[in-house]
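Write out a record, fold above all:
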Amino acid sequence: MKRFDPVHLFFSSAGRLGRRGYAGACLVIAAFTAGFRGLAPTPLERWTGWLVYAALLFAAACVTSKRLHDLGRAGWWSFLPVGAAVAAWPVLDDPADVWWATFLTLWVALLAVHPGQRNANRFGPPP
């Protein structure tokens, strides 16, 4: 059995990631985002938010890239949901924000339920 490596999971785009791993990683990223936004006082968020949110966006791009690799697709497509997250953040006060949030939700749901390739592909063996 493989040992869990959170650094590789969240900060490396190499390899493949299955459906359950993707869904779990997305939940962890969402929880960290909500926790930081909810618990950090406004001045703290203002001074450190750019670093924390950049790290969370990078982690989301890496996790999504791995999931796309499992489907046999290039990880560069992860710019779509990460871009949607940036466009919809931080509040949904505009109809375009709602559209981006809907797109992001559907994208994550699709990647969480679509089965990956059964055999090894150019990105490695199945997870």
Summary: The chain has a mean pLDDT of 90. The chain is about 65% helix and 0% strand.
